[in-house]
Amino acid sequence: QKEVEQDPGPLSVPEGAIVSLNCTYSNSAFQYFMWYRQYSRKGPELLMYTYSSGNKEDGRFTAQVDKSSKYISLFIRDSQPSDSATYLCAMRYGGATNKLIFGTGTLLAVQP
Amino acid sequence: DVKVTQSSRYLVKRTGEKVFLECVQDMDHENMFWYRQDPGLGLRLIYFSYDVKMKEKGDIPEGYSVSREKKERFSLILESASTNQTSMYLCASRGGFTGELFFGEGSRLTVL
Fold this sequence. Notes:
Radius of gyration of chain A: 14 Å
Low-confidence stretches of chain A: none
Distance between the termini of chain A: 37 Å
Largest interface: A-B, 20 and 23 residues
Structural class of chain B: mainly beta
Oligomer: heterodimer
Number of strands of chain B: 11
Low-confidence stretches of chain B: none
Number of strands of chain A: 11
Shape of chain B: globular
């Protein structure tokens, strides 16, 4: 079983839709949760960062962490064609460790 | 803005050739990483470095080596390229209070 599971998609939605992207994980020791966005032929860039449980909002984006269910989500409101990209969840343990565990990514296409 | 620059965006090499992939970051980060990214497998860590001349194996180090002679530069070396090393290679440096990874744009290597 992979430590982090993510549905690869592809996910196709019309412009303006609410998008929900999800990851599940198996190790309850993860404390830091991130979402990266990767445009085609580019490197990933950090989109959202959350520590422990709860919600975090940034403009049209909301990151949600449910540690009891080992489940994290990224919601995109009023989706735009420019949101079309691969979204990667990532998480790591606390402390001095450097290792970030990534999901395989979900490919999102927002149709105009 | 943090910039991570990978010297080659696209390379085509033949089986058995030695390949150098170079990465430079401009933010004085101590930690640097090399990943490969393959469809369905996501990002997999090859090697990382805590500091100059320090290196640690990641999850898939076989067939690769690295060099970190200067803080800003981290090189990935394929001593004898094989076709199963055809992939997208991503360099990253780690910094900021979140410990987020800053990625380069990637080097797409094809081994014939």
